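Format notes (please read before filing issues)

Several people have asked whether sequences and structure tokens are stored in separate files. They are not. Every record keeps both together, in the order shown below: the sequence lines, then the token lines. Line labels are part of the format and must not be stripped during preprocessing.
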Amino acid sequence: MISLKPTKGVLLVAEPSIIGDVSFNRSVVLLAEYNDEGSVGFILNKPLEYTLKDFIPEIKSELTVYNGGPVEQDNLYFIHKIPDLVPGSIEISNGIYWGGDFAAIADMLKNNELKEDQIRFFLGYSGWEHEQLEQELELNSWVVTPNEYENNIIGKSYFDFWKEKMIEFGGDYLIWSNAPENPNYN
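Then the structure lines:
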């Protein structure tokens, strides 16, 4: 298991002890911003039962929208790996970009020029105030690990992502890889 200091671009993997938290139970979060004011991330493995066209009907895209986190769930956010096509993009790390000119995105979506492995949409985000994330790390709520997928994480399958990380960590984490989401069901 790897546990690093939090920085932009790393992954936060929820410890198995986070039970009952709808947003963060078995979550893998990409940390998009980390500074003295706080942190912002997006949950990568919690797809919603909505597609982009459910929120923006004029864009008839079937791209899945993910639960990015419990903050500002009335706003749509996106990460991508096409900064040359999206003015105003902010690099997170390893060729992963956050935001940018949504009009450019909308045009590409209307023309079916974007693929699922190039962009991911989120409803809301995960946010931590100054030192809040550090407190959660001290309470062993998260494992901080590098993003070895780099910008290919955008197209990464969400289905077994958390389970894969538990297997990768090994040791005491292995038992959790096959445990039911609610251990009371065991």
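For reference, the curators noted about this record: DSSP finds four helices and ten strands in the chain. The two ends are 25 Å apart (CA to CA).
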